[in-house]
Specification:
- The protein is built from 5 helices and 10 strands.
- By secondary structure, the chain is α/β, with parallel strands linked by helices.
- It has a 5-stranded mixed β-sheet with strand order 1-2-6-8-7.
- It is globular.
- The protein starts with a helix and ends in a 20-residue tail after the last strand.
- The mean pLDDT is about 90.
- Keywords: Hydrolase, Manganese, Metal-binding.
- Its EC number is 3.1.3.16.
- Pfam families: Metallophos.
C-alpha cells in the first residue's frame, strides 16, 4: 500500500467499507446465506434485520456469532473452540429453518476438502471457495449455483497452477508501520 499509494488511506477505506456490507443474504426466502453460523440470540430473520450493522464487528454477541459460529455433530449450543461464536447442532438448524420458512443454511468459514460439504441432514451446507487454502491444504473450491427453480448445483474448482512460489516469511505488513 505504502509503496503504491504513498499511504494507507486506500486500505483504511476498504476496511471502513466492510462495516456497511450486509452480514447475511436470503435467496428467494428459502436459502439463508452467511459466513459463519447461527446465534442463540437470534431466532428469526427479523432479529437479524434489526441488528445495527453500521459498526465494526464486536468481539462477542449476535453479530460476532453470525461470522464465527460453526455447525456441530452434537445437539444444542456449544462453546466454540475458536474462542468466538458458538457451535450449533442439527436440532438448532432444523428449528431455525422451520421458524423462518427456510430450506437451507448456506455458510462458509470452514475448510472442506471437496469445496462443499453437507451436514445436519442437509439443513446446512458449507461452501468453501478458497482453493489450496494458504497454499498448503490441497483442497478444492466450490460455489453453489442456484437456478431459477431453486435447483442447486455445486461448481468445483481445482487450485490454479502456481507460477511463482510466494514469499511466506513472516513480516509486519507495511500498513502497520
Amino acid at each position: 500500500m505504502l509503496e503504491k499509494y504513498g499511504n494507507a488511506n486506500v486500505w483504511k477505506h476498504f476496511t471502513d467499507l466492510f462495516d456497511y456490507l450486509p452480514l447475511t443474504a436470503l435467496i428467494e426466502s428459502q436459502i439463508f446465506c452467511l459466513h459463519g453460523g447461527l446465534s442463540p440470540s437470534l431466532e428469526t430473520l427479523d432479529n437479524i434485520r434489526d441488528l445495527d450493522r453500521m459498526q465494526e464487528v464486536p468481539h462477542e454477541g449476535p453479530m460476532c456469532d453470525l461470522l464465527w459460529s460453526d455447525p456441530d455433530e452434537r445437539c444444542g449450543w456449544g462453546i466454540s473452540p475458536r474462542g468466538a461464536g458458538y457451535t450449533f447442532g442439527q436440532d438448532i438448524a432444523e428449528q431455525f429453518n422451520h421458524t423462518n420458512g427456510l430450506n437451507l443454511i448456506s455458510r462458509a468459514h470452514q475448510l472442506v476438502m471437496e469445496g462443499y460439504s453437507w451436514c445436519q441432514d442437509k439443513n446446512v451446507v458449507t461452501v468453501f471457495s478458497a482453493p489450496n487454502y494458504c497454499y498448503r491444504c490441497g483442497n478444492m473450491a466450490a460455489i453453489l449455483e442456484v437456478g431459477e427453480n431453486m435447483d442447486q448445483k455445486f461448481l468445483q474448482f481445482d487450485p490454479a497452477p502456481r507460477q511463482i512460489v510466494p514469499d511466506t516469511t513472516r513480516k509486519t505488513p507495511d500498513y502497520f508501520l
